[in-house]
Amino acid sequence: MTPPKMTPPKTAPGSGFFATGLPAAPAPDDCVLPFAVEALDLRGRLARLGPALDALLTRHAYPEPVALLLGEAAVLTVLLGTALKFDGRFQLQTRTDGIVDMIVVDFDAPDRLRAFARFNAARLAALLAEAGNPGPAALLGKGHLAFTIEQGAEVSRYQGVAPIEGGSLEDAARTYFQQSEQIPTYIRLAAGQVVTAKGARWRAGGLLAQFLPHSPERRRLADFHPGDAPEGHQVETRPEDEIWLEAKALAATVEDHELLDPGLASEDLAYRLFHERGVKAFAAQTLRESCRCSDERVETMLRSFSQKERDDMVGDDGMIGVTCEFCSTLRRYDPRDLAE
Question: What is the pTM of this model?
């Protein structure tokens, strides 16, 4: 199975074309907006997460540094997951030796999002006392970032992996596209709290832009240095395409506050970044926070254990309690109802 490509959906002629600088009506929050800049052979997506992300983060009361990192992971997931053109599952997962040693974000097409992070509270407290405001590198450490696509039982799943080497999720994602997909890609992620009339609310935003010219040769990247090559080995050097350099320079002008601003519609932001070259926006994909756990799923899982294993799960109250890591829902079961 091949990974998803950033191709815009079909629309009516002229739909969403910002030719006059008068964009279409603003898309709702919690959405991903596909766009294209044909003059630059550019395809991309703008993601804006508001209430859905706020529900995910406040439910777990994550410390601020952890919430910021998980917000970036969530917005990266929807940037990639909404490229799926079938009903399936896209999962982002990190496993590292850092303070935040695991992040899992699930996107179930077409619109369901859930996420959680696991972290070492004692190590985080020590780091905050020492550094005050640690960045992603200090939280992630070293490990790997994995993308998994599941299309159903009849289709083999696809998985791509990129190293996390003391950098950010942006760095790891760019490395993945450079090494695995050989597609020139620019990624920008931002997360933070925005003060509203109802108090501080978590938000996140992201931009993904890819250079997809018709000629494969134009988008070909230079090979990585082999590292252990024999002496005298010549490593290929290949200058970046001038059109891609221009596209990347325009995309890089986006600011964190623009990605997080609830008053700035995604269509307006796309126009602000690329209007000089003519940008087309397509139908936005809306999202919602939703967990796939259920009483039936949990009961089936418990029945898969042996009687002895279930006996060991019984608490002081005589019940088996199961808490979902994603949505924090606590379910209690009478072990007698599960007896073989």
Answer: 0.84
> Is the CB of residue 321 less than 8 Å from the CB of residue 330?
yes
31-224+241-289 is classed CATH 3.30.70.100:
no
- Alpha helix segments (H runs only) across the chain: 51-60, 64-81, 121-131, 136-140, 169-176, 242-251, 256-260, 266-274, 295-303, 307-313
Residue 179 corresponds to which tokens in the numbers above?
């090494």
Residues recorded for the chain: 340
CATH class of 295-338: alpha beta
Tell the residue number behind the tokens 């629309």, with chain if given. 11
Structural contact between residues 120 and 152, judged by C-beta atoms closer than 8 angstroms: no
Determine contact, residues 88/70, Cβ cutoff 8 Å.
no
Consecutive sets of 10 residues in the chain, 340 residues long: mean pLDDT of each?
40 32 55 96 97 95 96 97 87 97 96 96 94 87 96 83 94 92 93 88 97 75 50 63 95 97 94 96 94 90 91 92 91 86
Classify strands 288-289 and 112-119 as parallel, antiparallel or unpaired: parallel
Instruction: Give the burial class of 67: count Cβ atoms within 10 A of its Cβ; 0-12 exposed, 13-18 middle, 19 or more buried.
Output: buried
3-class SS at 125? helix
Q: Are strands 320-323 and 330-333 parallel, antiparallel or unpaired?
A: antiparallel
**Kindly report the CA angle at 13 between 7 and 269, in degrees rounded to 5?**
60
Q: What are the residue ranges of CATH 3.90.1280.10 in the chain?
A: 295-338
SS (H, E, C) 66-93: HHHHHHHHHHHHHHHHCCCCCCCEEEEE
Tell me which residue has tokens 């932001």: 269
Integer Cα distance of 144 and 94 in angstroms: 6
- Distant-in-sequence, close-in-space partners of 337: CB < 8 Å, separation ≥ 6: none
